[in-house]
C-alpha cells in the first residue's frame, strides 16, 4: 500500500502528540526510541508542534551516564485550549471545565428539579460562558454531553430537552464540535484512561441511577455493539419466582435506584426520601426499606451475573450512590456472585463516580479534536 509523505508526516505527528500526552514530560531521544522514528524526524516534528503550541518545553532531564548536555523535556501544553464537559441527569446537571490535558479547572453540580427544559437550556448556555478559561491559545475546543440514554451516531435515543436540539444549538452558539455520549460509556472510558493500572484491559462500568447502563471495554477498546446497543440493560428480561407465580421483570423497573425509591414510597410516611435518608433507614432496620434494598441486591445480582458471564471482564466498577452510602451492599453482591471466583473478576465501587462521566467524555472528545484515534490514553490519574 502506498502512503505519501504528507500522510506519513501527519501520522507521525499524531503519534508524537499521543506519546507526549501519555508519557510527558519526555525527552526527544526517548520519543525517538519509543516510536522507532529517527531523531531528525522527531526534532522536525517537535519544532512544528512547539511553534503551534501543542507542546511546551518545561526544563531539563537527567544527563546520560556518559555525561553531556542534559536533554530538554517536552510535555503537552495544557494551555492550548479548554473543554466544557456536561452530564445531564434526571434532576441535575454536572458541568466541568478542563484544560486541554484533562486537568480539572472548575466543577459545579446544579439541581434542575422544577426547571423547565427552556430554563435548563438557559442554565447550560450561561454556565458554558461562565466556565470559560482565560489565557489559552485557542480558547474553547469542544463541548461534550453525557446523557442517561443510548446514543448512536451522536444522536440520543430519547430527546435530551423537549423542542431543543441541544447538541445542534450549542454547536451553532459556540462554533465548536459538540459530542454526545452515553454516561456509562463515558464512565468506562474514564476507568480505562484515567488509571495508573496498565494491566486492566477488560472492564465494565455499571451506572445505576434512574436507569441502569453498562459501559464495556474489551481489549482496551470501547465496545458499542450493533447500533451502540451493547450495555443497554433496559433490553434485559429476567424470570423471577415469587411466592405464588413466576414473573418476568425488567431490571430498570425492578432494581434501579429510582425503582427502589418507588417501592419505599408505597409505605405511608416514607414518600419523597433521598437516597441518603433511605440509607439511614436501612441501617436502622426499617422493614419496608430493608425489603426494598433486598430486591435491589437480588435484581442487580442477576444483571451482574449476566454481564460477567457474557464479557468476563477483569473488573466491574459500580457507580451507585446507594452502594456508596451503604458499602456493605457491595459485600452482599460479592456473596451472591460465585461467578466472580470462576472468572477472576473483581467487583468494586467506582472511583470518582461524580467526575467519571465528565472526564470520560473529555477523553472521547479530545481524541476527535486532536485526531488521536481510539487507542488508550494515559491521562492524569
TrEMBL record:
<keyword id="KW-0859">Xylose metabolism</keyword>
<dbReference type="InterPro" id="IPR000600">
    <property type="entry name" value="ROK"/>
</dbReference>
<dbReference type="InterPro" id="IPR036390">
    <property type="entry name" value="WH_DNA-bd_sf"/>
</dbReference>
<keyword id="KW-0119">Carbohydrate metabolism</keyword>
<comment type="similarity">
    <text>Belongs to the ROK (NagC/XylR) family.</text>
</comment>
<comment type="function">
    <text>Transcriptional repressor of xylose-utilizing enzymes.</text>
</comment>
<dbReference type="InterPro" id="IPR043129">
    <property type="entry name" value="ATPase_NBD"/>
</dbReference>
<dbReference type="GO" id="GO:0042732">
    <property type="term" value="P:D-xylose metabolic process"/>
</dbReference>
<protein>
    <recommendedName>
        <fullName>ROK family protein</fullName>
    </recommendedName>
</protein>
<dbReference type="InterPro" id="IPR036388">
    <property type="entry name" value="WH-like_DNA-bd_sf"/>
</dbReference>
<dbReference type="Pfam" id="PF00480">
    <property type="entry name" value="ROK"/>
</dbReference>
